[in-house]
Input
Amino acid sequence: MVATLVLVALVFDFMNGFHDAANSIATVVSTGVLKPQQAVVFAAAFNVIAYFIFHLKVAQTVGKGTIDPEIVDHYVVFGALVGAIGWNVITWYYGIPSSSSHALIGGLVGAALAKSGWSSLNIDGLLKTIAFIFISPLLGFILGSLFMLGVSWLYFRTAPSKVDRRFRRLQLLSAGLYSLGHGGNDAQKTIGIIWMLLIATGYASATADAPPAWVIGACYLSMGLGTLFGGWRIVRTMGQKITKLKPVG
Output
């Protein structure tokens, strides 16, 4: 049963990469900086490279800081994962950008509530997570607007062709950094789920500072593979339906 649930978790991780690949490659594909096939390989590589850079802070929050590890069993983990996978499939089918991370946290909280009620939740950790669900898009909107205004002012008298060449290179940097952050953040959520399961079933120590190395490697690799296959429905939504992405000028 544990092996089956680990496999389901890795399927979710694959779906996370597949579903959320659009976030990092929509800009470089829509503006023609990279061809679609090049973009997904580029993003997948940075997803996996994150394995060598990021500490496991997010995994620790998911594994120990969201719900009480004492109430975790096969049913809680299964309910959380299947709920998140189901939501990802629905939003992918309709081409709706949606956070796989939020789906997973929601599934985990819902499964814990169904089993043990409100006492099963780690309120401090959960409130921190919920706060950033709202802070992140607002902060992104503000910084994106300010950055666009600043760039427009700095390059006001520069020929559009020169600006285009320069920012095509910078788009590769921004897409690479986003993919790096995606791997470093989202892969760790699945690491946290598997770690929680292994602790609950006695396959890992609750006092350990990190999960087994094979869990970390498998999660980063699964996300990278998912990104490699890419969710083009969502790329089209982000690049053409929400905003008409094209080079400025």
Remarks:
- The mean pLDDT is 83.
- The CA atoms of residues 14 and 219 lie 8 Å apart.
